Structures are given as structure tokens and as C-alpha cells.
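Exercise 7. Given the encoded structure of a 336-residue chain, write a plausible sequence.
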């Protein structure tokens, strides 16, 4: 069997004809297997959804209980048969509940990794390499220039700024699912025990994380009626990236804007957004993680999707691994 007979791109998403299902479809389908809860991968309106319990919970929180007609839970490492295909979900280390999906038939195994990373993250289960014939990898940061610093180093930079500017409110822009909770968890891990203020848009997901045993310490709502001149001074306020530079931030004392994103590696992006304290913190694999992971899977063939496909395809070819870009549409950088 050729790999493209097991899994191939369609306008709806990656399709498996033998099992008649799609992985992370961007349009409503009969049967969807979902890698993780980010909005560009997990959409509402499918008839049946198979995903980890956490991803199903996150979809319910975001879209309401009727986001699909029926749901099925996939536990990490457990094989399930769909038609003539065996599928299994494995940790991707991206956000809580995130999974790579292995699809196997006639002795051929393809792993669709969704979004993933290898850097330390106490808020989700670490990535596990899965041996396979074909590995489908993202390429959000698929250029050698992208090497993320250690997350603790970035956390220490935020802590240093708080010490240096105790009179200023530190507004940290962070994507609401995963990144926001990771920033908070990181600050706790370096001993920041003060209450952290959170924007209303992060409240439900953060509460859900806490309910799953992720330690985020004391969180308080950032939304208040009363404005005082010292509101938020010397405190961390975590908010969606969209509010940076917005009038929402003006309710706080001399707001200092920080942004936790892999894109902060590019100074120009930080400048464009008026970010004073760029924190390079990504939930996507950097160049070294991408190439190390490709080797660990032992795959003889690699399909590269959403991001900078070219450099990674070329790296594979130079290392004797067949590779091609997989043109899937509808996946974004999700403000990472
Ligand atoms: Zn994602």
C-alpha cells in the first residue's frame, strides 16, 4: 500500500479512506479525529468526534455541549479500530490533552503529529516519539534561525522586569488555551507566589486546567469597576494578545506590555506590536526539536505542513529522508 492510500489531503482536511475519517478537518464532516483544542484544529459541527478526554472537554467549554452529535474518548496509547484501520493517540506536549494520531493498516504506520513541542511544559503530558514509516510534522518554526531559549530563562526575564519596575503593571499577552496557563505555571516554578490577575477571556480554560490538577496558584480576575492609580502595579496580568496596546490595558498602572510567543524571536514583530518585553516562549517545536523528532521517529518519509515547509523538506533530503510539503489549508499561527 502506498502511504497516500492510507492518508491524503482533501479540502476538508487529512482524509483516511479506509477508515472514512478526517484528522483535524476544517469543514464539518461525518467523523473527525481531533489532535487538540486550538480553534484551527478543533472546529464545531462534526457528527462524530474522537479525541482525548481533555480535548473533548475543551471543545465543550468553547462551543457548548452540542459541538458534535456524538463523542468518543481516546486514551493515550490505546489502540482503536475504525474500519480496517487501527488508530492510537499519543502525547504531543503542545497543550493539555494534545495528541499525535497514529494511523496503521497493512503494516504501514503514519503519524500525524498535529502541533507539538519538546521543551519543558508542566501543564501537559510530554511528547512521546512514535516509531513510524511516515511522519507528518508541522513547520511553524521550520527555519534554522528559530531556536527557542529555555522557558525558565524567559520566566526569569519577566521576574527581573517586575523587580526593576515595581510601579508598573506587567501585561503579558498569551494565547488563551495553553500559553496563558504555561506562563502562569512557569512563573510559579521559579517561585513567583503573588496572585496573578487574568483577563476574563482566560478564566474558564484556566479553571479547567486547575480542575485537571495543573497548579496555577492564586488567580484573580483582572476586571474591576474601580480604577485606581496603582492598579496592578508590580503584578502580572495575563491577557489575550489582542488586548496589547488596547484601551483595556489603560486601567492599570503605567502598563508594560509583554508578549509570550515564539515570534518574539523576530525583533521587528515585537516592535510592530509595541511590545516592550518580548518573551520567546512557544508551544511549537523549534528547528532543533523538529529535526531531532524526525530522526527519533525513524520515519523514512516526512510530510511537512503548516509553516515554513521548504527548509525542513530540504533538511530531510540532505539526510536521506524522503520529504514533501503537504498543502493543508486553514491552519494558522494561532498567535503563538
Ligand atoms: Zn495548536
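Solution.
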Amino acid at each position: 500500500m502506498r502511504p497516500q492510500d492510507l492518508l491524503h489531503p482533501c479540502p476538508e482536511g487529512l482524509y483516511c479512506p479506509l477508515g472514512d475519517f478526517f484528522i483535524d478537518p476544517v469543514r464539518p464532516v461525518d467523523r473527525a479525529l481531533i489532535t487538540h483544542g486550538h480553534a484551527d484544529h478543533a472546529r464545531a459541527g462534526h457528527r462524530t468526534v474522537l479525541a482525548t478526554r481533555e480535548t473533548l472537554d475543551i471543545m465543550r467549554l468553547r462551543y457548548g455541549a452540542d459541538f458534535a452529535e456524538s463523542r468518543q474518548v481516546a486514551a493515550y496509547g490505546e489502540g482503536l479500530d475504525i474500519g480496517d484501520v487501527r488508530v492510537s493517540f499519543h502525547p504531543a506536549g503542545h497543550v493539555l490533552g494534545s495528541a499525535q494520531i497514529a494511523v496503521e493498516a497493512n503494516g504501514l504506520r503514519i503519524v500525524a503529529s498535529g502541533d507539538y513541542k519538546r521543551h519543558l511544559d508542566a501543564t501537559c503530558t510530554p511528547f512521546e516519539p512514535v516509531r513510524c514509516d511516515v511522519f507528518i510534522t508541522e513547520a511553524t518554526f521550520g527555519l534554522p534561525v528559530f531556536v527557542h531559549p529555555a522557558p525558565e530563562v524567559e520566566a526569569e526575564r519577566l521576574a527581573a522586569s517586575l523587580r526593576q519596575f515595581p510601579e508598573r503593571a506587567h501585561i503579558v499577552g498569551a494565547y488563551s488555551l495553553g500559553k496563558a496557563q504555561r506562563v502562569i505555571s512557569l512563573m510559579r516554578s521559579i517561585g513567583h507566589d503573588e496572585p496573578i490577575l487574568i483577563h476574563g477571556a482566560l478564566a474558564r480554560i484556566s479553571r479547567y486546567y486547575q480542575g485537571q490538577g495543573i497548579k496555577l496558584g492564586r488567580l484573580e480576575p483582572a476586571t474591576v469597576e474601580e480604577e485606581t492609580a496603582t492598579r496592578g502595579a508590580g503584578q502580572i496580568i495575563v491577557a489575550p494578545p489582542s488586548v496589547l496596546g488596547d484601551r483595556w490595558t489603560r486601567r492599570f498602572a503605567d502598563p508594560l506590555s509583554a508578549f509570550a510567543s515564539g515570534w518574539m524571536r523576530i525583533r521587528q514583530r515585537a516592535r510592530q506590536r509595541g511590545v516592550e518585553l518580548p518573551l520567546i516562549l512557544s508551544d511549537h517545536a523549534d528547528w532543533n526539536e523538529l529535526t531531532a523528532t524526525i530522526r527519533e521517529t525513524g520515519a523514512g518519509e516526512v510530510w511537512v505542513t503548516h509553516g515554513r515547509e521548504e527548509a525542513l523538506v530540504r533538511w530531510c533530503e540532505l539526510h536521506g529522508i524522503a520529504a514533501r510539503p503537504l498543502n493543508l489549508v486553514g491552519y494558522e499561527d494561532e498567535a503563538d
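Remark. The mean pLDDT is 95. Students should compare their own answers with the one above.
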